[in-house]
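Throughout our pipeline, every protein is held as a single compact record rather than as scattered files. Nothing more is needed to write down the fold, since each code stands for a local backbone conformation. For reference, a complete record is included directly beneath this paragraph.
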Amino acid sequence: MKHVRLRAMEPEDLQDLYDIENELELCTVGYSNAPYSRYLLHDYIANSTCDIYADRQLRLMAEDDQGNVVGIADLNDFEPRHNRAEMGIVVRKSRRGEGYAHAMVDKLLHYARTVIHLHQVYVVISEDNQPLIEMFKSMGFKGEKTLEEWLFDGEKYKNAIFLHLFL
């Protein structure tokens, strides 16, 4: 398995964050349908407390062994009353297929379990992303449910798959 380091965002991450967040194909799986400006992302980095209780989310940069940003891992829609959050990962397009997704999820699960003490994490994945669905299943995620017409790609609605893991 690849090695990654998850760390807090720094001002120097602005260009990496801008590049990754504005990848066109991500618009169909995320919650935003507009590109992010550098100003907005700069403001986000500057104002993020990196405290999941304050921000209701935690976004971490993922680095390879050489310190290059390979992606972003986050916990969002944090629900403190029920100790659960949605997990999201994005691997930089140029680094996909190298095993970083698995390493990022592994590190984020460890952090969620040992630092935040979450009870449950869940993912929502486009039904046509079978490699990612299978990866999460191989890591113990279960409870596969189909969310009908959950994602809109600009032309048609797609089903999504919901999976969860008790920590």
